[in-house]
Amino acid sequence: MAKKQRIPHKFLPWIDARKKFRLSNAHIQMARELGLSPKRFGVYADTTDQPWKVPLPQFIENQYAKQFGKERPDVVMSIEEIAAAHVAKRAQRKAEKLSKAEKLSKAETLKASQNESPQDLPPNASE
User: Fold this and answer.
1) How far apart are CA 122 and CA 73, in angstroms?
2) Exposed (0-12), middle (13-18) or buried (19+): which is 56, by Cβ within 10 Å?
3) Measured in whole angstroms, how far is the alpha carbon of residue 104 from the centre of its chain?
4) Could you tell me if 38 and 86 are in contact, meaning their C-beta atoms sit under 8 angstroms apart?
């Protein structure tokens, strides 16, 4: 049985919005690229009080085409794939930072051991 992947909190509202408004992964990705907030999707999709509004998926597609000049993103990834890539990238950065710190500490200890020997000698008694 595969271990369930941890999803960072910043991606959870997007997953909830995808389920609540029945959006595809492409629509969610387009909305993220446009800078839309998933918390405001209810305002964008309020067709009961404002029936002249277009459906939310069509609204996102229109805005995306207007801003980027194309109908869909070149590569569509699900929010779970984006979250997994985000977690992997953070883990890689953390490992690089840790290895850099280890190299730096080894260099400092080596430099300190080289500098200790001349300083630790007692002063000459003949002077």
Assistant:
1) 72
2) buried
3) 28
4) no
Q: Which residue has 């051991």 as its token pair?
A: 113
d(CA 9, CA 20): 17
Local confidence pLDDT in tens for the 127 residues of the chain = 566 778 899 999 999 999 999 999 999 999 999 999 999 998 888 788 888 889 999 999 999 999 999 999 999 999 999 999 999 999 999 999 988 888 888 777 777 777 765 555 556 655 5
Contact 15, 79 (CB under 8 A): yes
Closest CA to 18 of 7, 9, 29: 29
